[in-house]
Amino acid sequence: MAKKQPPFKNEAQEAEWWSKNQNLIADRFEQAKAAGNLGKGTLARVAHERASQAGPSPTITIRLAEADLARARTFAAEKGLRYQTYLKMLLHQALNSEEKRTRRR
Known about the structure:
Elements: H1 11-20, H2 22-35, H3 42-54, H4 66-79, H5 83-103
Helix pairs in contact: 4-5
C-alpha cells in the first residue's frame, strides 16, 4: 500500500489515475476486507457520528429553488445521505472555505 493517491489538477487527470490504478484499488479493498475494515454506508455513518457529537441543532427554514433542492436530493442519495445532512455538509464546507479565503487577505 505504498502508492499514494496524488493531488489532481482536474477531474480528467483524477479519472485517468483511478483507471490506471484499478489493481491497486482492488488490492486495498481486499486488504481492508481481510482486516475487517469494510463498512456499509461509511460516509453516511461518519456524517451521523459527527452530527450526534455536535449536539442538537436549531431548526431553521430556508427557501431554495426547486431545481437546487432536486440536485441536492440526487447528490445526497448517491452518497447515501439525507438531503438535509448533505446540505449542512455543503454549507459547513463553504463557510470553512470562505473563512480560509478571508484570512489570507
